[in-house]
């Protein structure tokens, strides 16, 4: 069964939520010039809702404190779902991205499964605590008036999820890029807000359908579209920066 190509809401708080406005992105195939679908355009209120849902998930649920193996199992379940639908993803990516079927088959529709499985394995085997022994000399810091640290001083380093992660995905590798950014954040116990690329958002919306099927906890993953030039509707840029507006703890951009 093909994925829907007409979306009317955003995946926020574990469910599909109607947008606060009526603006939409019309998706046009670059290879044919024909309309192939549409998604809603997020307003400031929609983005606020997604970010607040992600913050509640991080601070008010047990998601960041769950055993890594539990989060890894959900990542693996999503990887399996994506693999089952790889042909449907390939069909969709050929249309909305304009890539060849060969590229869709060998990379665009396959890489997401690899990213989710890889990060699940990392989550299962990662060393979240580490005892570090100082190898500084006995006068370290002393010349600057600081504390003199003796040899062999030990520190316990605990690695914890940072919080809400905002991901901004490039258009040319939209589905692999989303998995590359979202999978490590979710596996680590973070919650995520995804800014989809305007020219080709459909594959990411389709992935959200599978997130819902797998049963990730509500609020762990949010996504929305946004007009270029501002976080509001077309012609209404808010002027608020990503960090101050969203209260985001970490950003992952298209090239990182």
TrEMBL record:
<dbReference type="GO" id="GO:0016491">
    <property type="term" value="F:oxidoreductase activity"/>
</dbReference>
<dbReference type="InterPro" id="IPR016161">
    <property type="entry name" value="Ald_DH/histidinol_DH"/>
</dbReference>
<dbReference type="InterPro" id="IPR015590">
    <property type="entry name" value="Aldehyde_DH_dom"/>
</dbReference>
<feature type="domain" description="Aldehyde dehydrogenase">
    <location>
        <begin position="16"/>
        <end position="218"/>
    </location>
</feature>
<dbReference type="Pfam" id="PF00171">
    <property type="entry name" value="Aldedh"/>
</dbReference>
<dbReference type="InterPro" id="IPR016162">
    <property type="entry name" value="Ald_DH_N"/>
</dbReference>
<comment type="similarity">
    <text>Belongs to the aldehyde dehydrogenase family.</text>
</comment>
<feature type="region of interest" description="Disordered">
    <location>
        <begin position="219"/>
        <end position="256"/>
    </location>
</feature>
<feature type="compositionally biased region" description="Basic residues">
    <location>
        <begin position="247"/>
        <end position="256"/>
    </location>
</feature>
<protein>
    <submittedName>
        <fullName>Aldehyde dehydrogenase</fullName>
    </submittedName>
</protein>
<keyword id="KW-0560">Oxidoreductase</keyword>
């Amino acid at each position: 069964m093909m994925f829907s190509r007409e979306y009317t809401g955003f995946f926020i708080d574990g469910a599909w939520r109607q947008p606060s406005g009526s603006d939409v992105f019309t998706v046009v195939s670059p290879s044919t010039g024909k309309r192939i679908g549409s998604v809603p355009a997020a307003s400031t209120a929609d983005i606020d809702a997604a970010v607040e849902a992600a913050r509640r998930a991080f601070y008010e649920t047990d998601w960041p404190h769950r055993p890594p193996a539990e989060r890894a199992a959900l990542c693996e379940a999503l990887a399996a779902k994506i693999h089952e639908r790889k042909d449907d993803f390939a069909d969709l990516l050929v249309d909305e991205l304009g890539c060849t079927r060969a590229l869709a088959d060998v990379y665009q529709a396959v890489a997401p499964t690899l990213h989710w499985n890889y990060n699940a394995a990392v989550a299962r085997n990662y060393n979240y605590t580490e005892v570090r022994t100082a190898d500084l000399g006995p006068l370290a810091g002393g010349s600057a008036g600081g504390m003199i640290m003796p040899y062999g001083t030990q520190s316990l380093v605990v690695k914890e999820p940072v919080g809400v992660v905002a991901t901004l995905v490039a258009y040319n590798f939209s589905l692999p890029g989303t998995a590359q950014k979202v999978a490590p954040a979710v596996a680590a116990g973070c919650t995520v807000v995804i800014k989809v690329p305007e020219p080709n958002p459909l594959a990411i919306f389709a992935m959200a359908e599978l997130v819902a099927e797998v049963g990730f906890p509500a609020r762990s993953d949010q996504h929305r579209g946004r007009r270029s030039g501002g976080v509001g509707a077309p012609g209404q840029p808010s002027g608020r920066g990503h960090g101050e507006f969203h209260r985001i703890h970490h950003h992952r951009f298209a090239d990182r």
